[in-house]
Design goal:
Layout (H helix, E strand, L loop, with lengths): L4 E5 L3 H13 L3 E5 L2 H11 L3 E4 L8 H9 L6 E5 L4 H10 L3 E4 L4 H19 L2 H6 E4 L2 E4 L4 E4 L2 E3 L3 H12 L5 E2 H8 L8 H15 L9 E4 L3 E4 L9
Parallel strand pairs: 1-2, 1-3, 3-4, 4-5
Antiparallel strand pairs: 6-7, 7-8, 8-9, 10-12, 11-12
Length: 238
């Protein structure tokens, strides 16, 4: 199987070379762009499988690139940025980024995030008919047509909001969803005052699907930002 094609968008030569060298260690094919205009041209012309994107580019903000790419593609976008404020992370993720890694970063962590993004992309592309009706992740199964979910063959009794939350996270497995995004999709609005309610529902949902809620395998919390459904390999005894 051919290695995924990665587009590195980074104006800092040292960081760009570090990312390129990291990809070379795993024999990934890659192309580079040093500014936003070149990045958009590369994305349209060469259709990469994943974009690794810096936000602080000389000609435009990386968030604008995310928005433009999202107008025509759902390819994974991993932000690698020196901006560490929660507002920056939320802004990029709300615009459509799949993940956010803060500089300085570990090459191994970047590779791990890249593997997650690639798995998510492959899962979405594989068996679209089956994926549209039944979701399987470890021992978790969601039957969208029947409107029910089960864990290790036992039905999970969910409230309507818990079920909508679970489906939203499942359909975006591997992607960090911000509080605002989840609130808009599930509640229809994104009010700051609704975030405590979201946290309560996530606690109850985690208790129902996690074998050990204190050591979650499925639902990952990104403090101050949002939540992510993790891909669980194979099946385990619950």
């Amino acid at each position: 199987m051919n290695k995924p094609q990665i587009l590195i968008v980074e104006d800092d030569k040292a960081v760009r070379n570090l990312i390129a060298t990291t990809l070379e260690t795993r024999e990934y094919a890659y192309r580079t762009a040093e500014n936003g205009a070149a990045a958009l041209l590369e994305a349209v012309s060469h259709q990469p499988d994943v974009i690794i994107l810096d936000l602080g580019l000389p000609d435009m903000d990386g968030v604008e690139i995310i928005k433009k790419v999202r107008e025509w593609s759902n390819l994974p976008i991993i932000v690698v940025s020196a901006r560490s404020e929660e507002s920056d992370k939320i802004g990029a993720l709300d615009a459509g980024a799949d993940d956010y890694l803060t500089k300085p970063f570990s090459p191994e962590e970047l590779l791990a995030r890249l593997r997650v993004a690639i798995r998510r992309s492959h899962y979405q592309q594989a068996a679209p008919g089956e994926a549209a009706s039944v979701y399987k992740n470890g021992n978790l199964v969601i039957d969208y047509a029947a409107g029910c979910a089960s864990m290790a063959g036992k039905e999970i009794h969910l409230t309507p909001i818990e079920y909508r939350l679970l489906c939203l996270l499942a359909r975006n497995t591997g992607r960090v969803l911000t509080h605002n995004y989840i609130l808009r999709e599930v509640w229809g609005s994104a009010l700051e005052s609704d975030i405590p309610s979201l946290r309560v529902f996530m606690v109850t949902l985690r208790k129902k699907i996690e074998p050990s809620p204190s050591s979650p395998r499925y639902l990952q919390t990104h403090v101050g930002v949002g939540y992510r459904m993790l891909r669980v390999e194979g099946q385990a005894e619950e």
